């Protein structure tokens, strides 16, 4: 497994300028030592002095300065993409002040000029990530990196931007992070922070701790054989290799002393002794614990379910293998969920045939409602995907040990060389049953707004938790989506450091099929009506999901940036009434 070598590491705690001002300065101007308790023993460390340079660009050859517009060219609340010759920037005017940041969202490269400017931040039009216009810092997710920030000056009514050429080209900035103090002092079987799970929640927790100046030991462990990767791509871009979708390169984990133990499964947690027991018997003591184990896919319960060529897609290897086996062959997908529909769309022009089996009468019914589900179904049928609705699988049949046919309860027999199962998932929390950590009747870990469980020092995040959603009057909900996992990880980290930060983000997700995306914000569970604007047949629409008189969620296709606009309104704590959208 990946482990950072236990070598003597020089103390090097680099803290961003805005964080520096928060640090307590002792009378002689040097930073006071910070103290963290590690397994009961106090460790002192000093922050290294880093003089704050007045000129942030070290290499004059790397700097470009250009006049980009007249001061009157932009009104308050306007954004403009401007070209500096060797790259572009996003120029923003808000409350009479100009700001300049990177013009592309670091997540998937969306043009931020088409996003939404509100309350001192810009929200991505594609997937809802938010960036502070003054600092460029990421404030809501998905994605890990912030935007580069550029200097703006006004001279003779003209607006000038001064920028690093490198930053203009990369369009992303990794926030400065602390490093671990001497690793050689550590006992291999004890850590200050243990993170179980290496998805978005686990990784963002580790990165946030380092960004906040935490310089003690952090260990992440995962059952996966890979370093953290972009899991949504497993069903959207199925032939991606692990290194193509990794969230950070191996060097990143070494540079910031984030240790990742791969192929390591935790079998039990003793919260009294603060010890995690691994399946192979290895034990690790911790001070703070984050449980971010995600979920486990449900399997079929019919005869033949253990057969070769029947897949739950959990890993890049699963996805790659399905593509290889499905090429020019017959594929049956069970479950018209996000995973099932995305896999069907990806395989439609690669396989000989794609059949989808679903219990409901339209796909996405619970999530997007009847009318949107029907419009999406039509798009799939136009792309040669065949649906078998209101039925389920009764048997999988083999020939010479390999899958040959899928038998439905309706009596229909489908030819099948490959079967992909996407019938939902359950939280991966079985190992916590005897731990004393509060788990609800469905197996979800119950946390508060600070991602704390009922056990002090134990936090949980991601798909395996229920948490109070501010948007729905603090109702305890489970939101098993990529953006929310990022935010959970961040909130957990801040509260491990006793910041007292509560979660208040608006859920945001997307699905991609046949080159088209549906974007969604809010929490529509239990909606009782859908107000649709636009044209469903043309797949250019916005759907508002209402409960009694209130809009609780929104979905759109080819209607950007409406979902990001609604997300911003909801994030500001404002209510949208049904009559406002009718």
UniProtKB/TrEMBL annotation:
InterPro entries: FAD-oxidoreductase/Apoptosis, FAD/NAD-bd_sf, FAD/NAD-binding_dom, FAD/NAD-linked_Rdtase_dimer_sf, Reductase_C, Rieske_2Fe-2S, Rieske_2Fe-2S_sf. Residues 66-161 form the Rieske domain. The keyword Chloroplast does not apply. The keyword Transport applies. One of its GO terms (cellular component) is mitochondrion. Gene3D superfamilies: 3.30.390.30, FAD/NAD(P)-binding domain, Rieske [2Fe-2S] iron-sulphur domain. One of its GO terms (molecular function) is oxidoreductase activity, acting on NAD(P)H. SUPFAM superfamilies: FAD/NAD(P)-binding domain, FAD/NAD-linked reductases, dimerisation (C-terminal) domain, ISP domain. It is found in: Mitochondrion. One of its GO terms (biological process) is execution phase of apoptosis. Keywords: 2Fe-2S, Apoptosis, Electron transport, FAD, Flavoprotein, Iron, Iron-sulfur, Metal-binding, Mitochondrion, Oxidoreductase, Transport. Induces apoptosis through a caspase dependent pathway. Reduces mitochondrial membrane potential. Belongs to the FAD-dependent oxidoreductase family. This is Apoptosis-inducing factor 3. The gene is Aifm3.
